[in-house]
Amino acid sequence: MGKRLRKPAKKEMSFSDKIIKILSNSANKAFNYKQIAEKLELDDTQSRNQIIKDLKILAAEKKIIESEPGKYLIKAVSQDYYEGTIDMTSRKTAYFICEDFEEDVFIPTNNLNRALDKDKVSVYVYNRRKGRRAEGEVIKVLERHKTDFVGVIDIQKNFAFVSTANPKMYTDIFIPKDNLGEAENGDVVLVHIEDWPKRADSPFGKVIKVLGKPGEHDTEIHAILAEYGLPAEFPIEVETYAQKIDTSISEAEIAKRRDMRDTLTFTIDPKDAKDFDDALSFKKLENENYEIGIHIADVSHYLEEGTILDDEAYQRATSVYLVDRVVPMLPEVLSNFACSLRPQEEKYTFSAVFEITEKCQVVNQWFGRTVIYSDQRFAYEEAQYIIETKDDTIPEDISITGSSYQVSEEIVSATLKLDELAKIFRKKRMNDGAISFDKVEVKFNLDAEGEPEGVYFKISKDANHLIEEFMLLANKKVAEYIGKQKKTFIYRIHDEPNEDKLIAMQNVIAKFGYKIDFRNPGDISKSLNQLMADVNGKKEQNLIDTLAIRSMSKAKYSTDNIGHYGLAFDYYSHFTSPIRRYPDVMVHRLLQFYLDGGKSADEDLYETKCLHCSTMEGLATNAERDSIKYMQVKYMQDHQDQEFLGVISGVTEWGIYVEIVENKCEGMVRIRDIKEDYYTFDEKQYALVGATSNKLLQLGDEIYVKVKNADLVKKQLDFNFLRRAEETVN
Predict the structure, then answer these.
(1) CB–CB of 597/293 below 8 Å?
(2) Separation CA 267–CA 248 (nearest Å)
(3) Residue 718 near residue 654 (C-beta atoms within 8 A)
(4) DSSP string spanning 6-23?
(5) Residue 77 has pLDDT above 50, yes or no
(6) Residue 11's pLDDT band (boundaries 50, 70, 90)?
(7) What is the pLDDT of residues 193-246, one digit of tens each?
(8) Which of 122, 144, 106 has the alpha carbon at shortest distance from 21?
(9) DSSP H/E element including 190
């Protein structure tokens, strides 16, 4: 037995990696072979001889330094040390993301050394063997990505633990008794990690806020916001400051602006909107051209730089649209009242006014501050009714007033002409290589308590496209106007798609008989548009729409203009939504500064602000997505006895993901719960294969499922597999 246990020592085992780790953890201390052997808890002669040998090899390779005879130090800078980011998996392992490596470096669990998801770290990468994935070890956590976490508290006699629902958070958080605050056992809490002692299995934390009881509606919504560090309300001092702002319309201010109150103006927004960012004005000119104004709430008139209100708006950077509420960027006194372009009210606006021909050529443009008067407010459904029927009477069933009403002939005519022009603009964009993603949005009908009563799909129609095209025109022309002056500006940029992701997508869509043309970026965009058209209305539509969106690069804000691939624009900015996006506020300020003759602004300063805004946009998007998942799980809780037709939307070694056709809720059928056969995952076919029947369960297959478990806290659905759609029920 003794020999068998010592067998590894006879295999010329190397201690090099462990030596590097010991020296790295004490970078300024020199060690001899005895001290290293003691650290490694080795006392046999063979191991000590191997340590001596490894020390000499590492010194010869210049990875360590022999500071004095027999004593060694880690070399200050080593080519095997890299800085990057940790990407945790749900299996307590991670990947190290670093631009120095084409392929991410694998980090085993025991090499994480207290690093958490998205932390910035220093990693030692082991000598890479040909044909094997590189492995690494975290030497130091340089910067924590986050220190606040949401979880459920389990209180013991003298301490507590908080466990999170985040599958990438591999440890619970230890809470000393005097750091419990007001928390009671089982509460959902927000905790702050204060320390992670070297010998402790878990980080030490402190409860900073009690969010409520698990499963309660407000608790879960506040937990989503807290998880992403997003505020639920405004500080009292910010609300107080906002309430004191003078929001009156004065003759003195009007005199400084272009007065467009007599020009026909109206808004088209969602029926439940409260913040009306934009309005359109329409006038036919004597030369048969059209003067079309895109009027945007003049938020920067009220939001002064350097104030606590502006600081708060910048930190938030965006409004957050959760499934049951909006967390606004600006307090309500501005977002829903002073800045909102409400009907029959005079409002200050920042405008882009264009003279446009019948063929949609822009022959003149003007940018500047204006005052407008909105003659009419439409919901998209009402404008759509006018476009489809050309009727001037809005019926009761779609009217936002609750009863039928008549629209003036002037507004009907303007709406129809704007729709006609928008279609020309849209066709031109598509011909130029823009990509059309009209992904179905899931919406919920909620009762007074915020409980989901039903699901419906939001689909973009002509009225949506009308507004979209004129907003795109304003955003494009503002960016072009400043961009051609070569002055610092904030662009909304979108890089070309990731080719590896497109190839992976091609492998999936080929199973449905579709393909992508890879010859050049223009051909890619055309074939993607054709793909979107081909899948429209088919069972695989949502799956392929999702894959296509994921294959795209993410749009972001930057002072470095590379154009916008998805829109096929050389210049593009965000000018049209300053109530809900801080970059638009900065665009307004810069545009006015340059209109007044200002020199180019500080590029580094604005690039930093762009990065912050892009980051906050990403967090808001994640929170919005989580809130939809939460509501989907809540909805399915009440339908546990119902059979649902679903489409297989993902296949993994542990099961299949299934998307319900009628409500787009997605859940998992675990492989062990499919009883009709013994299934295994076939990576090449991207399918589960039955051992006895050889039947496949693959992407796009229709199956019937029933809810097995609906976990509100984890926002996860588990389904039971019932049968394939083609099988008849006996």
Answers:
(1) no
(2) 21
(3) no
(4) HGGGGGT---HHHHHHHH
(5) no
(6) very low
(7) 999 998 899 999 999 999 999 988 899 999 999 999 999 999 999 999 999 999
(8) 122
(9) strand 188-195
Count the neighbouring beta carbons within 10 Å of the beta carbon of residue 278.
22
pLDDT tens digits, residue range 546-562? 888 888 889 999 999 99
- Backbone angles phi and psi of 590, in degrees to 5: -65, -40
Whole-angstrom Cα distance, residue 296 to residue 374? 12
Per the listing, tokens 């762009």 go with 610
**148-155/159-163 β-pairing:** antiparallel
Residue 152, classed as helix, strand or coil, is: strand
CA pair distance 659, 207, nearest whole angstrom: 37
Residue 430, SS3? helix
Q: What is the DSSP string of 85-134?
A: EEEE-TTS-EEEE-TT-SSPEEE-GGG-TT--TT-EEEEEEPPPPTTS--
d(CA 583, CA 478) in angstroms, rounded, equals 13
Helix 499-509, helix 541-551: angle, nearest 10: 160
CB atoms within 10 A of CB 538: 13
Q: Is 633 helix (H, G, I), strand (E, B) or coil?
A: helix
Enumerate residues 6+ apart whose C-beta is below 8 A from 336: 274, 275
Q: Which residues are registered as beta bridge partners of 720? A: 706
d(CA 213, CA 584): 38
pLDDT of amino acid 73: 81
Closest CA relative to residue 587, chosen from 258, 293, 300: 300
Task: Please say if the pLDDT value at position 9 is more than 90.
Answer: no
Question: Distances in Å between the alpha carbon of 579 and those of 336, 351, 648?
Answer: 9, 15, 40
**One-letter amino acid for residue 162 of the chain:** V
Question: Which residue is it, tokens 């340089």?
Answer: 142
Highest mean pLDDT among 516-520, 534-538, 657-661: 657-661
What string of DSSP letters covers 304-349?
-TTSHHHHHHHHH-B-EE-SS-EE-SS-HIIIIIISS--TT-EEEE
Question: Tens digit of pLDDT for each residue in 436-447?
Answer: 877 678 888 888
Residues 6+ apart with CB under 8 A from 346: 249, 261, 371, 372, 373
Helical segments of 379-520, H only:
380-389, 409-431, 462-483, 499-509
Amino acid identity at 100? D
CA torsion sign, 349 to 354 to 355 to 358? Answer: negative
Tokens 């069933």 sit at which residue? 397
C-alpha span between 579 and 581 (Å, rounded): 6
Encoded amino acid at 46, one letter? Q
Torsion from C-alpha of 503, 508, 513, 515, nearest 10 degrees: -20
**Which candidate, 252, 259, 211, places its Cα nearest to that of 232?**
211
Residue recorded with tokens 């919920």: 444
Count of beta carbons in the 10 Å neighbourhood of residue 540: 23
Report the C-alpha gap between 113 and 676 in whole angstroms: 44
Q: How many CB atoms within 10 Å of residue 49? A: 12
Q: What is the pTM assigned to this prediction? A: 0.84
- The alpha carbon of 566 is separated from its chain's Cα centroid by a whole number of angstroms, namely 17
Q: Of 610, 574, 579, 613, nearest to 591 (Cα)?
A: 574
- Please list the helix, strand and coil fractions of the chain in percent, rounded to the nearest 5, in that order: 35, 30, 40
Nearest Cα neighbor of 150 from 79, 239, 75, 230 is 230
Rounded to whole angstroms, the Cα distance separating 253 from 250 reads: 5
Query: pLDDT (tens digit, 9 = 90+) per residue, 496-506?
Result: 888 888 888 88
